[in-house]
From TrEMBL:
Ranges for region Disordered: 238-264
Domain DUF317: 57-114, 141-199
Compositional bias per record (Low complexity), positions renumbered to this chain: 238-253
The protein's name in its UniProt record: DUF317 domain-containing protein
Amino acid sequence: MKKTQWQGWDPGEQAEQHYLVQPRALAGGGDVRHISEFLRASGWRDKSTSGGPLFMESPDRTVRVAYDPYVLPGGWTIHGKADGLNGEWSAHLGRQTPVEIVAGLTDALTRPRSAHAPSVWAPFEEQNWPTRFEGKHYMATSPDGTAWMQYHQGADGSAMWWAGARDEQGNGWTANFTPTTPMYLMQAFSTELADADPVMRPRGYVPLSAQIRTWSVSVHPSQLSAWQQARITAARTATWARSSARPRTSARPYTPAGGPRTRR
């Protein structure tokens, strides 16, 4: 990016080395604030304790998002209470699940549901992931074989969604979702998992793997700040628009005790 193209660029800033990483599923966990700041800007309550794991709650208190790196295996836990459309549900995603993929699900929690019927497998088909049946299981696998998503049905009839990524050294992550997880959330997750675009990681935070490809880029701190702020601003704007669109109940006219009186 040229200096003249970036109005917020400070000539005194030092560019920092970052890397674009592909495939994104093997890029490592990333910055948790990518998720937490978006939820906070969307009106979620931050109930984290100082120095403890991340813990956030939706405005209506029906969904909780937690990230705990201090326990094994650690990672993300997302839990939703039963409502009129879905039963109680939960999702567990490993610590090395890229935040961009986790955000596919958590961002969707802040938006109204689409009127269109969701399709978990459509994003994979659009990105040319092979899909196939394996017994009672249905599975999509990335073209390079490093990532997958599976609808798994056990012999006892139990079922769950299972996804993950792994390189030849065994490094990676897994995620599982209860069968009651709303399908629009599963589609939002699968969309980010299937996305072929690379994600950015700072120097020193790129996993050592023969299965990833990287491109070095120089980024100024003000650029990173502006990109992060644009995401936060989008969340605030969407939240404000939704609250403004809610119908307001007009106050009833005052009626004296004893009912209306008629003049004679």
